[in-house]
Structure formats: C-alpha cells, structure tokens
Amino acid sequence: MPVTMKLSDIKKLKVSELRLKLNQAGLDSRGLKIELVERLWSLLDGGGQRGTIHQQDVQQQIEPSPPPVPAGITETPEMVVASSSSQLLSSSSQLLSSSHAEPANVISPYGPTNQTREFADSATQTEAEGVPGCRLPDADECQAEKNESEPPSAEEERGRAFYEFKEEIGYKRAKLPQAPMENDEAKEDDDTLKLHSYDSHLHFQVGPDGDCGQPRFWDSFPLLWSGCRLTHGVSQGRVGFEVRLEKRLSSSQPGSPETDESYGMRIGWSFGQTSLLLGEEAFSFAYDGRARKVTCGREEEFGEPFCEGDIIGCYASFSADGGVQLSFHKNGRFLGVAFSLEPSELGGRALFPHVLCKSCAIGFLLNPTAPPWYPVPPGFTQLALLPAELRCRNVSAPRSRAHSEMLLMVGLPGSGKSHWAKAHIRQHPEKNYKLLSTEELLSCMMSGGARERRLQQAAQCLTQLIKMAAHTPGNYILDQCNTLFSAQRYKLQLFSGFGQRVAVVLFPSADEWKRRLSELQKDGENIPETALLKLQVSCSLPEQLADMLDELRYVELEQEAAQAVLREYKDEARRLLPPVNKPVKPKKYRPKKRLHLHGSSLPHHWIRGNGLNSWNNMPCWSQHVSTDEFRSTRFESMQSEQSLWSCVSQWNVPYDQAAYYCGGCHEGC
C-alpha cells in the first residue's frame, strides 16, 4: 500500500476492500467500518503514530489547508509524510491544551498520573452511571462491549490483556453450550507403540493409526509449532526409530510467504515431564531441519538441512554405566553424535521419542512387521521391535471426562494467575495438567510474524482449544483473566460432565497488586492503562453455584475482602474514565402528506361527505355558477389535475345535459 494514501482515500474504500487490505497485512479484519479504517490508517505509519480518526477530524477543522505546491514541482511521498506529521503535531498540541485535570484524590494502579491527561479517544471512555454488583454484571459487560467496539488509542500498544478481554466479550452474546454427549471409556492397549494423543499439544492432530500427525490448525494459524511424544520410551540398550517429513502444508492465509522458514521440523528425544517444545528446555534434545542441534534453547551447527521426503533416523546408545549418546542419520547416512549425557545427568530416567513440527505432516515407522526404510546401524534395534518389558510407558490420560478436572483461573492482569498455575502443576506432577493460556500459545510461535499478529492468533486459537478440551478427557487449567460473568458461566457450562470444576480466584491486596504490575512491566509485558481500567469496571468475582461449580477457592484475599477491594477499583476506574457521549438516536421517519401547489385538488363542495357542502347537499349550479364561469373553472382544474379528472367520467358529459345532475331545477329541464 503506498505511503501517500490519505485518510480521505481510505474512508472512500468499501468494507470488502478494507478487509482485503487488512488480511494482506495479517491484521484483524473484523468489526465496523470505522474500526477497519482506523486499523488501516494506523498501519500506514508502521505503529499508529499518525493519531486516531477522531484526531484527524479535529485536525481538519482547526488546521488551515497546507500551502499549494509551486508549479513545476512534483509532490513526493516525503513531502506528504512531512506535511501529515506537522499537521498532527499541531493538532495534538491543541488537543492537549484543552485537557481537563483529574481529581486529586484518585490513585492509578500505575502510580501518580499526569494531572493534565486527556482521553481524546472514545474507546477510553465508559459510562458515568453506577455499575451493578457482581451478580448483575450485564450492564458492565454491555458497557465493556460498547467500549471495545471502538478501536483503541493508537498511542497505546495492544498487549495480551487486550486480546484476552476482546475474546471474553464474545461470550456475552454466545448461547450457552449444550452438555457434551457421554462417550464410552476408551480402552487403550498399553503395549501399542504410537503417537500419544494426550502427551501432545491440543493443536497437534494424531492420525487414526497413531503413526502420523500434523498441526491441527496449520491453515488458520500457520505460526504454531505443535509437538508430540510417543507412548513408550527407553532407558537401556541401543534403540532407534525413523521418521519422515511427509509433505509441506502451504497455508492459504494472506501474508503467508512461501519460504523455507514457513515450515519446519525438529526430531529427537526428551524426558517425559519436559515441555512439548522440543529443544527449548533442559533434557530435551532436537535435530532441527535447518542443520542445527538444539537443547536448552541454544542452537549449534550440526548435520545437513532436510526437507520434504527426507527420512531421519534417531538412535540412542545407552552405556553400561548409565550414560547415553544420541546420534542421527539422514536418508541412511550417519551425521554424527549430537548429544552425550553422563550417568549423573540421566539419573536412570527414560528418554521418549519426540517430534515438533510447523506447517508440515510427519510419519513414523512404528509397524513391527514392516521393513525399515533404511538399514538399521549394526547393533541397534528398532523401537517397534523392542520387547514390551524393555519399554517404558508414558503417562496415561484420564479414562473419561468424569475422571477429569478443570481449574478456571479468575483475576485481573498481573495478579499472579500464571505463576500460581505453574507452581500448582509442579506440585502435582501425577495429574499431568495441561495449561491453556495465551502465553503458552505465544511460546509455540517461536519464529516469524509481528507481535500483534501473534497475539491476535494466540487469543483466537485459545478459544478453539478450550472448546476442544471440553470434549477431550484430561486435566486442564484455563489461565485467562475470566473477569466477565458471561465468560465464567459459558466456560463452566462448557465443561459440564467433568468430575471437578474448580474456580481459583487470585485477588491480592491493592499494594501487592501494584507491585506485581510494576514487576510485570519491567519484564516487558505491556498492559495499557485504559484496558486495565475497563477490566476493573467490568470485573465480576464468581460465587458458589451448585449446578456449575464443585469448589470455589480464594487463594489470597477472602471473598468478602476481595469484593470490598473490587468495589474500590471500580469507583477509581469510573473516576478515571470520562463518560461516553451517547449518540442521539435519529427520529423515526414519518412520511408527510404531500401538499398541493394550489391548495386542495378539489373544491370543498365537491368532496363526498354528509356535511352541508357535501355532494348530496350540493345546490343547483344555476343558482350559483354561470355557464361561462363553470366552463373556465372546469378548464383550469382539468389542466392542473388531468389524472384526477380522467377518473371522474361524469364531468365529461355535454353542458346541455348537466340538468341531469341538478335534479331538474335547471331551465329547460
């Protein structure tokens, strides 16, 4: 899109054209036209430094038109950008000069606020009326939806809380989900070697035979890396397996380039309790398709690049003293030993085959009766041919949803929900919790894409994963704000049928929350102040509901103290956010009666009725109207109302027969 495109040109575009340009840029194409125009206008400056549409409209009213370009000089893009920047600076200075001071007794969660701050954008405003309590959250949520319908200020960077809150608002108008149908308990064969459907990302799709897989959302969210481990591992002997990069999956999303970085695969070994992102933690060892070996997030040159159709062999050689060496083959050629572990590091734990892929399909050779794709190195045994007693079983999923558990985290941004959830997972390793959060999905987008695009895709993907988790047996932790009552009710209803549904509320004291917010900002997490104030206004703490909640747990402040602190937050947020200027509803259109240019189209004594001057009581014409007057009157009336006179056929009779209509009182009747 050219840099010289002006705001007036963007406003002339149709909604379909705006959405097409936003899709090509990888941005959100949903919303009203004003949102699309604002989003596209912010994109022109690579960060939204031009200002909002509201500011541009004010600018056009208060700024004189720029001087004309002298004849013979072509207006360059640099001149246009410089002119726009100068006009914006002048507009901003006038807007700031008219700002009002905030109340002196208001304390922001970010510390002292600027007393001359002005919220010029309508997206930073909220209602001035009182907001109902927690059990009547519809008014707050309606106001939050109204605030969110307008684009945020271009001066504020959208953070994770913004996109989470945007997704939560969608639950307000969503119908409550139906309870999933109860399925028979799945009986798994503990001795079958295959891809583990539970020890994998929810966005990894395992094939029906368990020997192949691919990312589930490779077309909708092509930036996601999806990982999976096998159901069995090894802790002794000399064992190996083979995996093939079946095909490359090309996304149809606009802005997805067809390059070598658009897909990838890592293959290797890992411990059972490590992250599914192969190579990003300790005791997780990967051979990357870019000719690198990866562990603990550190990459080193190793081997050769591999692409579609290549077969990689992974082999583990355990020594008698408990150490292990991990080597790799490509298409039957030995590439070398990539990793070596001492007995003290291994500690007798088992290593499990592990794959991580992005926008590609993979396949394992797990059939014990099938011949190997390439000859097995001397002294090694295929994992599929290893006796069952020499293999180590991976974790098992709950047998049904009745044996599963769901934890719903509730709290404002920065209250410590993610920290508590990760600590809870470490304290209960036997439950094998799956953490569903935007932060986890962002970590799965390890390469490529702008931050805003990744945040948007992560929030949208998380909504779909939550719906999938409700139908899949397992133990899940939903790590989101979940401050809207409609979002809490929808998700709890979605997981009906689970054995345990627990709401965990983290609501620290005001001072502790401010401290945690400041630490979160130091770590680079940006939470716009306006979005935070909106979350405070619309926040609703859950209460014990017998039909939806099995347990309500307040981790820090008790329920009564948390409700009191929340009321203070809401009062503070309402003072900081100016009221919304409600749009005046247009009056209903009422069609007006068409007035005749010369008054009534018919004389009053010709109109049918029962009055004195009605048709039936009309006196004889000979007593009132002469022949010449009648003819001239009828001629003029026929010229002005020809269509009407054509319908009144009785007036077309000759004048000498007019006595028929006057009752015989005319002379000569």
**Count of strand segments:** 22
Radius of gyration: 37 Å
User: Which shape, going by the Cα principal axes?
Assistant: globular
Q: What is the overall number of helices? A: 17
**SS-based class:** alpha+beta
- In terms of DSSP E residues, the strand content is 15-25%
User: What is the oligomeric state here?
Assistant: single chain
What does this structure look like?
- The chain is an alpha+beta fold.
- Helices cover 29% and strands 17% of the residues.
- It contains 17 helices and 22 strands.
- The protein has helices at 7-11, 15-24, 33-44, 53-62, 77-97, 138-149, 160-169, 343-346, 417-427, 438-443, 451-469, 485-494, 510-522, 529-538, 559-576, 627-640, 642-647; strands at residues 195-200, 204-206, 212-215, 226-230, 232-233, 238-248, 264-270, 284-288, 292-295, 298-301, 311-318, 324-330, 333-341, 352-358, 360-364, 381-382, 392-393, 405-410, 434-437, 475-479, 500-505, 551-554.
- The strands form four sheets. Strands 2, 3, 6, 11, 12, 13, 15 and 16 form an eight-stranded mixed β-sheet that branches. It has a seven-stranded antiparallel β-sheet with strand order 1-4-14-7-8-9-10, with no helix packed on it.
- A hairpin with a 5-residue loop joins strand 2 and strand 3.
- Helix 4 (53-62) packs across helix 5 and helix 14 (529-538) packs across helix 15 (559-576).
- The protein is globular and about 95 Å long.
- The model is unreliable at 47-156, 611-615, 620-624 and 643-669 (pLDDT under 50).
